[in-house]
Amino acid sequence: MSEPILKVENLTKTFGNSKDKGVKAVKGISFEVNRGEIFGFLGPNGAGKSTSINMITTQLSATKGDIYIDGKSIIKDPVSARSKIGLVAQHNNLDRGLTARENLIYHANYFGVDKETANKRADIYLEKFGLTDRQHDYVKTYSGGMAQRLKIARALMHEPEIIFLDEPTTGLDPGYRSILWEQILDLNKNGATIFLTTHYMEEPEQLCDRIAIVNEGELKAIGTLSELKELIPSNSIINIEMSDIKPEWVDQAKEMSEVKNADIHDEQLRLYMDSSHPDFNKILEWINQLDAELNTISLTTSSLDDVFIHLTGKDEI
Ligand SMILES: Nc1ncnc2c1ncn2[C@@H]1O[C@H](COP(=O)(O)OP(=O)(O)O)[C@@H](O)[C@H]1O
Ligand SMILES: [Mg+2]
Questions:
Q1: Which CATH architecture has domain 6-229?
Q2: Ion ligand 2 neighbours, Cβ < 5 Å
């Protein structure tokens, strides 16, 4: 197999000087991304996603560890790595004192794209992202959504080999979200590797070849969607909403023969079942003798959401 386009080894970031009091944002994570992959990097707020992306894209220095792009350490040689990397950062890092078009052209110039190609690409991306009419306006007059679209266009201007997108669709209208995805899939078809963080579960579920889940600075799991689904106790879950849920019912539920595991999540009692066709009568019988009223009961098969909750204990990114 060819060398991975990205290799991260024991990547660590502690903010602050004091050894004990610093914020341990990233705690020694290691993983690889293969060339041509669409790779999802998921985790709740504060998990260390942006800090990791910022180190991998040379925006931020690492406390410890190493990062290789195309087999070369970017810690040792950040300059040559930069031309291979495209970044759509989470924060707005556009030049507000330039027009949209100038932002694109300057970026392309910086990466040595010739003038004619830069202008052609700018025309294409301004059009795709609905910014042609406003291309000569200063970015400081742009709305959040427009700035986000421009950030994405800018990252594509030098046709990077690996593109990092840190929650790129946050604040984008659904129409532009699908345009972004069209672009991403197109770039990926032409060989670019995509590294994505998002808080929309359906995006990695549909689009990512592999997904890493991070929580509190640690890598919790990595694999294809079906590999990740195997990490949760069961593929079929009964969700029960009641007027009241008592913690001791979790243990009671676990004693039923078909129930592999149980927990309380989002004010619902969740039973992880052995079979995808569980005996509902038996479950209802058990519920009836509890001291609470049943509101709803439903059966779901597991999704990335369930994997995420199982691994992080959180239901919001
Ligand atoms: N510049 C900084 N100084 C101190 N702490 C920071 C800084 N940037 C991020 N953090 C902290 O590091 C942790 C990870 O943050 P971040 O990487 O932004 O998470 P995510 O992108 O997954 O939401 C959080 O606890 C955050 O408060
Ligand atoms: Mg972030």
A1: 3-Layer(aba) Sandwich (3.40)
A2: 49-50, 90
